[in-house]
């Protein structure tokens, strides 16, 4: 789910928290037998033109070990995912499990806690989501003549119906996992399936915006979210020590440490933009049933100014010396904003200043940390595709051609590429027919 500030952050329409106690399976009433689920099969088109599909949609021993996700997507989104270079690879898991899930202090429900010291940049969790679906459910015919409240109620009803279609495809085991997750939207008219999704959804970034989302006037984000079983247990903090990204090649949710985490420390993520002031952060979190009491929120406007200054201030200059550079870095780290892109930029600048001053070991240490944190913030990069050898013609397969088309966010450019390919196909067809004719004569 993508926020207005970062595609790797929590989608504000799908924020999750663990302040609500997980509800039992029996407390939810849905419109079909929980034990009935659809067999895994090719995509099915809904009445609204969406696609219900199981991903990854082909089987290997390695892929089956991580399970599958039931998805509700537009045809564009499915193509964008499955045409990703390197799709679909086995999930790369951490060497060992270094967390446990237990009750967090106070009334914050379950949380994730480190069972060993964890270094900055380390992968904590990688999991296949239970579901991936759009965060916008608009009926094909809008009841513009109805009062807003009735329109909203109809939209929520439609959303739940769409969610039931996704849920019905899940195995009984995954249905049980899904229904065990927290639901902080039980009193706003959301159905149980939609409420769980809104509470626990994480943004899915494919590098481009779904054209249907753009038509709705949404300025950022792809409009899709993923719900995972374990990842739903990360609590919020405005001083997060963990960062989330979505890995398209492995179709998995990944969580990395952005600073050292001590054994026994709770691992947290930020549900809101860390550039927001405390009043706005609290307002965004209010519908989810908890009040953040971290030191950044307790500090009020003064802390807001300090954090904003850390994010926006000019990087230290070489002429100001090593002592000043190290002081700026230390001050930044005190704000606990290591999950922000500014942090690796600052690490690299301080490394450069130290290297110029002859402090090679210190510079190497900072550069290595910057690389690890950059991976945590931006996600692991897909492997580079092999470059063609020699000067012979480059042969593209259908998947690569589709990836080229979908990489263009401008519909005009997309159509231009399609037109060129169609013209080339026509030329090849004519050429083939001429060759056949020559052979006959």
CATH class of the largest domain: Mainly Beta
Overall pLDDT score: 82
Radius of gyration, whole Å: 24 Å
How many domains in all?
3
Strand order of the largest sheet: 1-2-3-7-9-8
By DSSP, the count of extended strands is: 13
Q: What is the CA-CA span between the terminal residues?
A: 62 Å
The rough form would be described as: globular
Regions with little confidence, pLDDT below 50 for 5+ residues: 1-9, 11-41
CATH architecture term of the largest domain: Beta Complex
* Continuous helix count: 14
**Helix-strand sequence:** EEHEHEEEEHHHEHEEEEEHHHHHHHH
**Helicity range:** 25-40%
Key traits:
single chain, 441 residues, alpha+beta, Beta-clip-like, 3 domains, six-stranded mixed β-sheet, four-stranded mixed β-sheet, 38% helix, disordered N terminus
Task: Summarize this entry quickly.
This protein is an alpha+beta fold and 441 residues long. It has helices at residues 61-65, 75-82, 148-167, 172-179, 192-200, 211-215, 278-285, 295-298, 300-312, 321-334, 342-356, 360-378, 398-406, 411-440, and strands spanning 44-45, 51-55, 69-73, 99-103, 110-114, 123-127, 131-134, 202-203, 224-227, 235-236, 242-247, 252-257, 266-269. It has 3 domains: 12-269, Beta Complex (Beta-clip-like); 299-378; 410-440.
